[in-house]
């Protein structure tokens, strides 16, 4: 059996999701006549404490539209240096919204207002003005790290004082909520828009939501259509999404415990380094440079023994836990990793 720890995006819809999909009431969502999509959007808005929500096919589309609704061509978006919007969305920030990223490097993925404040620019003969601040929570390449709520609030207060908006890439914001023991509405209370994914740890086959003000979401709906994201009987997807939203967050704790188990096991292996303080949710990034082997070589050897783990650089690999790999699977993965790494160091 393959143990797939490449990403939480590999989760398959549960039996309950598949049943709900088969039985979903549907309509034409471009006319806003799909009752299941409408219900999903309404519940997402309620859960996040925002006025409205928009169902989009992917997180990338949700972030792209989120950035678009707050900016104009020729502005800058302040974001973290390893953020998804800057590194992994095919430069949509530039291609679609006409903005330039102004990245800020951080240790674990969380920017502070004090850093951001210095990067804010006003229009001048040399400078493009700042249009938006984009935060990522949890931070994927930071290792699933969580933003302290006070830091988010401090950034939002500072931004709003300067008439700037804040967008959160909350692809895994429910993991942050579980780690903090706080509802997402509290984490996101001050941000102007949030994108979150149903199709990662929450297990839906497809879909993300963008939540925000009524006015912003009305504009977002038009940009979704422009990007080719106007879906028709999308209720079959929203039906799975509703289960992802209502039921699945409560089991993320288990994924976090599995990540901790793996991280602690990895930390004991010769040549492997893990920063245990950054293992806060369902992601474990580990450094194999001291094994003398490249991350890609080790990944290929893990794969040959049925364990899939992606390299994210020459020296680092990333594990993401999710509900399709149980505790037993994690222990098996650990023993494969141990078997592959230990002889290298002998
Ligand atoms: C932090 C973060 N934001 C956005 C996305 C984009 O989501 P999608 O793959 O649905 O476009 C991802 C996907 O991995 C992600 O990890």
Question: What does it look like?
Answer:
It is a single chain. With about 350 residues, the chain is an alpha/beta fold. The longest helix is centred in the C-terminal third of the chain and has 19 residues, at about 325-345. The chain is built from 14 helices and 13 strands. α3 (about 60-70) crosses α10. β12 (about 310) and β13 (about 315-320) form a beta hairpin. The model has no long low-confidence stretch (mean pLDDT about 95). Bound molecules: pyridoxal-5'-phosphate. Pyridoxal-5'-phosphate binds near residues 58, 59, 140, 171 and 208.
Tag the structure with descriptive keywords.
346 residues, alpha/beta, Aspartate Aminotransferase, domain 2, Aspartate Aminotransferase, domain 1, 2 domains, seven-stranded mixed β-sheet, four-stranded antiparallel β-sheet, 14 helices, 42% helix, globular, binds pyridoxal-5'-phosphate
Strand content range: 15-25%
CATH domain topology of the largest domain: Aspartate Aminotransferase, domain 2
**Computed Rg:** 20 Å
Biggest pleated sheet: 7 strands, mixed
CATH architecture of the largest domain: 3-Layer(aba) Sandwich
- The N- to C-terminal Cα distance equals 28 Å
Query: How many H/I helical runs?
Result: 14
Query: What is the CATH superfamily classification of the largest domain?
Result: Type I PLP-dependent aspartate aminotransferase-like (Major domain)
Q: Give the bound compounds.
A: pyridoxal-5'-phosphate
Give the averaged pLDDT, no decimals. 97
Number of domains: 2
Shape call: globular
Order of helices and strands: EHHEHEHHEHEHEHHEEHHHEEHEEEH
Count of DSSP E strands?
A: 13
Helical/strand content category: alpha/beta
